[in-house]
Amino acid sequence: MVSLACIVQAITVILTVFTSPTGGQITNGGFASFCAFTGAILVDGHLLGMYCENNDIAIFGYNYTWIDLDYCIGNYIGMLRPQEFGHYSASCRGCIINFDSTLWLDCICPDLRHLPVHSTIDLNTTLFDYDGALGCFRVLGNKTREGPPLPNN
Ligand SMILES: *[C@@H]1O[C@H](CO)[C@@H](O)[C@H](O)[C@H]1NC(C)=O
Ligand SMILES: *[C@@H]1O[C@H](CO)[C@@H](O)[C@H](O)[C@H]1NC(C)=O
Ligand SMILES: *[C@@H]1O[C@H](CO)[C@@H](O)[C@H](O)[C@H]1NC(C)=O
């Protein structure tokens, strides 16, 4: 006879697999292969927006996605580092993004003595693409069909 505990456990496993962004196929990092860094923008030093591939492989589908990097990155005594709900923008200033083969976040952050120091982090170590939405840790950003109009520069 199948016990109630077994059924509850089975249901819990199913819910975990299908509802948790960290369940199964997702690990932290690796968005570099699936998102378009050209046209990526950083608003207010912490809101990151860009196009990322979704699961509509047949039509080569993309969505525009926003994630708040304050959910993903913290300031550890002057060094940006992956940290769930790290809220680096509360203490770091002058944040910008740069890209080559990966996307870098670059800020001035206070160190142990409250002196401003320069810090850079490879966001590919932290951000992942989940069906066209950027995510980190247990957080998923939103997505839309079209992004904002490109800035005139
Ligand atoms: C991004 O991260 C993924 C997963 O760790 C890795 O396979 C890939 O080589 C990285 N890409 C770059 C450009 O660093
Ligand atoms: C998505 O998130 C961004 C950043 O938080 C926000 O500005 C935007 O309004 C959101 N868009 C939708 C469609 O929810
Ligand atoms: C994401 O993009 C697909 C096309 O690839 C589109 O059909 C879908 O509506 C978009 N999702 C959202 C939430 O806008």
Q: What's the structural blueprint in terms of helices and strands?
A:
Elements: H1 4-19, E1 35-43, E2 47-53, E3 62-68, E4 73-76, E5 79-82, E6 93-99, E7 103-110, E8 116-122, E9 128-130, E10 133-136, E11 139-140, E12 142-144
Antiparallel strand pairs: 1-2, 2-3, 3-12, 4-5, 6-7, 7-8, 9-10, 10-11
The chain binds 2-acetamido-2-deoxy-beta-D-glucopyranose (NAG) (3 copies).
One 2-acetamido-2-deoxy-beta-D-glucopyranose binds at residues 54, 56, 61, 63, 132, 143-145.
Structural write-up:
By secondary structure, the protein is mainly beta. 10% of the residues lie in helices and 42% in strands. The chain has one helix and twelve strands. Strands 1-2-3-12 form a four-stranded antiparallel sheet, with no helix packed on it. The longest helix has 16 residues, at 4-19. The radius of gyration is 18 Å and the shape is elongated. The relative contact order is 0.21. One 2-acetamido-2-deoxy-beta-D-glucopyranose binds at residues 47, 66, 68, 142, 144.
